[in-house]
Amino acid sequence: MVSSLQLRAMSDQPNVFAGVKSRQSRPKPPWGWITLIVAMVVGAAILFSPLAGKIKRGLLSLRADTRRSTQEEADLERQVENRLRAEFEQELAEKMREIRNRQPTTPPTPPPAVEPPEVVPPVSLSGVDVTTLRSGIPFETEVVIAEGTVASKERVDKNSYKAEYKLTVKVPQPAKTLPELQKVSPDIEKILPKLPQLLEKSLVSPQYQTLYNNKIVRIKKDATLLQELLSKHNFYDLETILHLRDPVTNRRVFFMQSEMDVVSDGSDGDRLATMPAEIVDSTNYQPFTSYGWKKSGTTPNPMIAGWEKRIASAQQELALPATTAARKTWLRERIAYLKRGIEDMKARSFLVAEYDPFIVMPVHIITASNDPYAPRVGDYAVVIHEKKLYPAIVGDGGPTFKAGEASLRLAKEINPRATPYNRPVSDLKVTYLVFPNTREEERSAPDYEKWRKRCEELLAEIGGVGAGYTLHTWTNTFPTP
């Protein structure tokens, strides 16, 4: 069986300019033109000298030798170019001011016959620079210049030339009180009138801390390797997770407030016989969701054709003499995985994110067997955004460091502009209610009306919804066979 419980898966030699004194008595030169010419020569010397290239290569080499995508390489290249350009412009401006200050206000006097060599003081480059990384994290750099001993000794001293990196992260506290929950959903008390009573004995879920621990582990690993960090937006994507329990019915509720990202996985030949070629041939699209059921029809899953093409391509590369042994091992493993996936698609059907409303929970939560409040695949859920309630189920498992994901169908209902690359809700404005241990004993194709009625019953067991609020009614949008 193929499961989709997978992690979805940044010159050591500054240019020094000295004024050149005339050795002969000459008329007063045109200092303005000389200044301009010097500036042009200086700029060209810096910009086109090998030094800029060496600096750039040196900065790039500070990064760990890890595999990066083309986009990541381009981003790093651009960051280094911008840093070099800023340093060049700053140094050029400083030298121009120095040259202007050296211009005499009276005609120059002849220099002495023998002029001692000019003593150039060392240039201090100490200073602090603050910029913002692409992930939204303020990045502060400080260059500290200190006087050392002779170069032959400093070269072998490991502390004479070193870099230090310190990352500060504040781990948030979960929202617990009604006023805190209302910051995310102002109408939550009106929608769930019994919520204040349910909060009296509520507990913070251990899954809240586990998820943030997972984020911290990931950040530590990436920071150590100087890799791109989890963005600030994605780090602070979870407001709270609470365990609620109705004192009368004993109905448990997994209460979570977060944002909403989009997933677009899944396939089902019985309900969707054809899919666009860019999806069928994609190496990123996952045909599976954690929620699946026995296939009932004879129409093949449309994703099988794309996976068979990938097998054929892998077999051709495997037969090439130039293919390395390590690559061949990887190809054989990949072929075996693709074949297992094809067998799974022949035997089962899955949710289709573009058409089915479901939510995604982190894998470590849906597999937490010792937590009676933890959602399981197939459990019923209600998503609340603003004043609307949407019935759904837990349909898939996602990364252990990410909270707040839903299918494209649910996302577009909340925000029609939502796409797999454009989240419907960026702020922490979505409330997820999951009713643990409510999944059906036997899985089957989605029945939206059944889902809505069952969610109504479960809401009634925690006091029901307030006047004027109702559950959304989903319609079947699959193409007619």
Describe this structure in words.
The chain has 481 residues and is α+β, with helices and mostly antiparallel strands. The chain has three domains: 27-106; 178-264 and 354-460, Beta Barrel (Barwin-like endoglucanases); 277-350. It is built from 15 helices and twelve strands. The protein has helices at residues 31-48, 50-61, 70-102, 151-154, 178-184, 188-191, 195-199, 206-224, 232-235, 277-280, 303-318, 325-347, 363-366, 408-414, 448-460, and strands at residues 127-132, 138-143, 203-204, 238-245, 252-263, 292-294, 348-350, 358-362, 380-385, 388-398, 405-407, 425-434. It has a six-stranded mixed barrel with strand order 5-11-8-10-9-12. A two-stranded antiparallel ribbon has the order 1-2. A hairpin with a 5-residue loop joins strand 1 and strand 2. Helix 1 (31-48) packs antiparallel against helix 3 (70-102) and helix 2 crosses helix 3. The longest helix is centred in the N-terminal third of the chain and has 33 residues, at 70-102. The chain is globular, with a radius of gyration of 32 Å. It starts with 30 loop residues before the first helix and ends in a 21-residue tail after the last helix.
